[in-house]
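Narrative summary of target 7.
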Amino acid sequence: MLMETENHETVETVDCRAPDSDDSDWEKAWDFRAADAENRQTAEDSQPPEEDYIKVKKMPAWARIAIASVVAIVILFAFIWEFGNIGARIDPDAEIPQGSGSPVQDAIDDLDWIIPAYLPVNDYSRPGTKTDEISGIVVHYIGNPGTTASQNRNYFANLAITEEAYASSNFIIGLDGEVLQCVPVDEIAYASNDRNSDTLSIELCHPDDTGEFTDETYASAVRLAAWLCSEYELSGEDILRHFDVSGKECPRYFVQNGDAWETFKADVTSAMDG
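Modeled conformation, tokenized:
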């Protein structure tokens, strides 16, 4: 039989129909095959071209690295802002009150080894309340291993914003022996419970959970305690642990190692005599 192709060419084909089939059966089978071919073509046409598919699905390696780097930098800066030295979150235009002008404070202001880092006056860390006559020095430990003096000073300053606790210290000594003054010596700091009004507080940073201090921190603590005792005419026995005031395990190393505490007081006395 003769048949016209899609290119309008006439070709002769072999009639493969069964002897008892009629033309309508053949036409139905042909229509079914034609419809099936059309459906397959429609499905293929609905797929995006291979080039477009590659563009959508595949991103260049440099672009993936760039995006990952940006995300990592954002996370890092968020962490530093919250916990690092730049995280004070204090209004940079706010006035930071300086020392109070008491005789001992005036002497401190002339020392080059005590760094002024006064907190702004606020209800949570520097209320501005005057002390009674100073009768003792209370030694504390930060309790947050590995943090710096500056970070802990910023934490105290942030309490004016967060209002999450009442806490501060007159002095903080860092891991490298740096001495920061946060509250003037004639103002109370929130550190020593019912002895805030007649004592000065010294917070010591420490590198690990044992609470033991670096040599630099220890040396500066002896120097500062001796200087304050001399100014206020106190003795080594007027130096207290926070533990002696409230029973709290603070400073941990000096509570767990009584001999080390006695050595510290003896070192302070020697420094005063020297």
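The longest strand covers residues 136-141.
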